[in-house]
Amino acid sequence: MYVVIILSVFFISLFYAHFRGKERLKLSRQFFDHSTFLGPVNMFMTGFSRLPPDPFFDPKEFPELQALQDNWQLIRDEALQLQDQIKAAESNNDAGFNTFFKRGWKRFYLKWYQDTHPSARQLCPQTVALLEKIPSVKAAMFAELPSGSYLGKHRDPYAGSIRYHLGLSTPNHDECFIEVDQQRYSWRDGEATLFDETYVHWAHNNTDQTRIILFCDIERPMKWKWAQSFNYWFGRNVMSGASSPNDENDKTGAINKIFKYGYAVHAKGREIKAENKRLYYIYKWILFALLISIIMIPAML
């Protein structure tokens, strides 16, 4: 009975994630995607959300964020002083964005589902002061997309937040854009957008200028207080485990402490795939079957 329940939950989560929106990842990729494994949580978040099931939202519906847009030049100036600090992770300690670094994407964390990073408080105090006055901002960073960079199609794993982008230093050109569920937005200096990052999205900077934005996770507004409390708890106690440091003074979350070991397995898998693709997929499905077995065996005893 427990085995049936576990399998049912997994496949319901798989198809929920796969059919969310117009754009889809390949089913074989969605099968192993982190958005599938967070499917039960995400069904709760979207089911009890006060927001409509749309890819983009009007920032005017979130008036508390206006202070960021009003002070975008101040935020931009602090971001531009951090050119040596906005960078890729120096070791495999950023599970959430690890694949982005390969294509040139860079970041400087301001906060991640808990307190402000000490490095951010020291290096960009005015931006931090603005963010700390807005409780709905659960995570924030400066994000850089260099000229020619491309982020492939993907879903972010967690529906308890929505994504806020504020243009700071951008090409101000339609060839620098993000596309969310087949709807395209091009960044402009001083302008903001809000979107649901659990829809398939991708980005491309096809200009000769680097794009720098303020990137925030905004807590999804829920229909009832008890649902909002659960969203807050999950972010604080689970999502905070993906915290990644800017330097040695910042904390590394539990997820990222474990990630380096998983990354070593992934790196070995890439070597095998380069040598023998068929063997790679055999190993991949065997590992997945073992994982399912580990989950199910206690329920069968």
From TrEMBL:
Matching Pfam families: Asp_Arg_Hydrox (PF05118)
Domain called Aspartyl/asparaginy/proline hydroxylase: residue spans: 70-221
Membrane-crossing residue ranges in chain numbering: 280-300
Gene3D superfamilies attached to this UniProt entry: B-lactam Antibiotic, Isopenicillin N Synthase, Chain
Superkingdom per UniProt: Bacteria
Endpoints of the signal sequence: none
GO MF term set: dioxygenase activity
Keyword Transmembrane helix set for record: yes
InterPro entries, sorted: Asp/Arg/Pro-Hydrxlase, Asp/Asn_beta-hydroxylase, IPNS-like_sf, Lipid_A_LpxO-like
Key words of the record: Dioxygenase, Membrane, Oxidoreductase, Transmembrane, Transmembrane helix
Keyword Oxidoreductase: yes
Family: Belongs to the aspartyl/asparaginyl beta-hydroxylase family.
Protein name (Swiss-Prot/TrEMBL): Beta-hydroxylase
